[in-house]
Write a structure and sequence with these properties.
- Keywords: Membrane, Transmembrane, Transmembrane helix.
- This protein is mainly α and 64 residues long.
- Helix content is 53%, strand content 0%.
- It is built from 3 helices and no strands.
- Helix 1 runs antiparallel to helix 2.
- The longest helix is centred in the N-terminal third of the chain and has 19 residues.
- The protein is elongated, with a radius of gyration of 13 Å.
- The mean pLDDT is 92.
Length: 64
């Protein structure tokens, strides 16, 4: 499980996830706002299974 989420992508996922979860807790929006757990988890872990499937990577290249 190599990291494939990095930089701005990671920050946006964490912020979006937190916003959706807060909306769900406050009762604003539909029950689907609990889906915010997914971007929050992928942002915190730095790994997205969908990126793995599609061969995407937003992490900067590591220098040898």
């Amino acid at each position: 499980m190599n990291a494939n989420v990095g930089g701005m992508d990671k920050i946006l996922r964490i912020v979006a996830g937190l916003v959706l979860i807060v909306l769900a807790i406050m009762g604003i929006g539909a029950p689907w706002t609990w889906i915010g757990v997914v971007p929050l988890a992928t942002g915190l872990l730095g790994w997205c299974p969908a990126y793995s499937i599609f061969g995407m990577n937003t992490c900067p290249m590591k220098k040898a």
